[in-house]
Amino acid sequence: MPGTCRSQGRLWSRRAVLRVGGMGLLGLSYADMHAWASTPSARQKATARGVIFLHQWGGPGHHETFDPKPDAPDKVRGWFGVTATRIPGIRFGERLPKLAALADRLTVIRCMQHRMKNHNSAGYYSLTGVPPPSDDIRLRDSLDLCPAYGSLVSYLRPAPTGTATFVALPHVIADGSVTPGQHASFLGKAHNPLLITRDPNQPDFQLPELSLPANLTVERLEHRRSLQQLIDEQSRLIEYSLLARGIEENYQKAAALLLSPSFRKAFDLSQEPRSLRERYGRTTYGQACLLARRCIEAGARFVNVYFSRSIGGIGGGWDYHGNNGESTIKRLDELLPITDQTLSALIEDLENRGLLDEVLIVWVGEFGRTPRINNNGGRDHWPQCYSAVLAGGGIRRGYVHGASDKLGAYPTMGVVRPEDLAATIFTALGIDPETEIRDRLNRPLPVARGQPVRQLFA
């Protein structure tokens, strides 16, 4: 298997193989080499133990959020003013005052760039760090496409038994068809996310997928036949999406989740003080972010939180062309306060719990919005320049990476592509971006195709 070695189910990166390749001359056995490669000094040093990936479906505009252009012409600078931050000389959009006050905890990337202009192709790129085969609105989900970040983490660095490594909530995103990049693809269904599509903001929110029926004891559950019956029953509840059905294929994993009191407890939001739930915001997105924090605290390693389910209409995410039957300002009056409240609450909550240094937050959409306001009073798709925000997990604080031109149209300093952001995320988790996996044709593929942005690390 050129370029990749397997040992007891563990993948070695090409770099690790090269580093130990000459040890045979020193009399070291294959087992000795495995033991050497498993030592902390031989692995990528992690700065984060978990990631909360806040995917802003629809594409937020940087002019309204983290890279406003107050001195640009009226048709560029947009509808709102700016607010000063705690980073000297750096301003955010005026509808983000709470985040402006927390700017000294953030890294803002102002030079994200790629070429995909359709939601599904750009969404796949954003969720996997891999360029799609085509920029096509008709791009369909396929096992030939690459797995989600969280599925790669599940494959390479699984959480302990009884904990889901990868959790996704509260939607399956789509633009017409389901957007690729939300599941394990060719890695196998065992690495699919634990998918939660119930609204955590509802008073009766619970997770029946992780609840035992009253007439089923632990002793009965230990028998394969009883477990099979349980999985069949639970599958009817979990079939909110085809992406969730992978739990059927791994009985032991399903049983471990069902029998893990600590992980099941993470989904009981009633344990949180009402004041904290209000701080996150009593919205689907706000409570989903609170639930993400609880999942990470319970041992999950990667949680995807999708801002919205679909494109268009009120509640349809960040797609504000100005022709959806509602004014752009009305749409932004909904989106921006939710973002300001929930993201700031998540950062402060993690910090108050002493977790911010070990949990990486990534806030990013599939692209940005055009620098010029269109004739419909909105902004169109614009992947040529957009912003991402990171916090915690060993990332620098109070730092702005890169810059855009005076219109916010193109980067003038630095370019960060989705594959570079992917490499940065994996590096933070202690996974060498050069580590190889195998696709359905047994071809070696690196887990990330870009380079980590070293300037982002503290």
Automatic annotation (TrEMBL):
Name of the protein in question: DUF1501 domain-containing protein
Parts forming coiled coils: none
InterPro entries: Alkaline_phosphatase_core_sf, DUF1501
Residues annotated as transmembrane: none
The species this protein was found in: Thermogemmata fonticola
Pfam family, one: DUF1501
SUPFAM superfamilies reported in the protein's UniProt record: Alkaline phosphatase-like
Lineage top rank: taxon: Bacteria
